[in-house]
Amino acid sequence: LSENIVAYRNENGPFAKRSDLKKVPRLGAKAFEQCAGFLRITRGAEPLDASSVHPEAYSVARKILAAASGGPTSVLDPQAFVDGTFGL
User: Fold this and answer.
1) H-assigned helices in 1-88
2) Residue 67 and residue 27 share a domain
3) Is 46 in contact with 18 (CB distance < 8 Å)?
4) Are 40 and 58 in contact (CB under 8 A)?
């Protein structure tokens, strides 16, 4: 699978975003879920792609970032980020 990733990159150039991994032959949804957090895309279209945040958690990460925009002294209520996917 790693050889497929490298071959795809060599043929198509650098990945612009993590979701481009889904275009790699034989890399299915489960493999994407398992490997996407290890791949960092710097200077890409999605700023969170350069972080260790997994793509399935981007929505909650954005909520936390928006809530923290008040600065480092902002108090965040963890309950505010609980949804059908992410618990307390």
Assistant:
1) 2-12, 29-35, 58-67
2) no
3) yes
4) no
Both tokens of 84, joined, read 């059908």
Model confidence, pTM = 0.77
How does pLDDT run across 16-62, given as a tens digit for each residue? 999 999 999 999 999 998 888 888 999 888 999 999 999 999 999 99
Whole-angstrom distance, CA of residue 19 vs CA of residue 32: 8
The structure tokens listed for 54 are: 């997994």
- The reply to whether 7 and 47 lie within a common domain is yes
Domain that holds residue 61: 57-88
Q: Which structure tokens are listed for 58?
A: 């981007």
Tokens 């198509």 sit at which residue?
12
Rounded to whole angstroms, what are the CA distances from 2 to 26, 28, 43, 68? 10, 13, 22, 37
Contact 44, 16 (CB under 8 A): yes
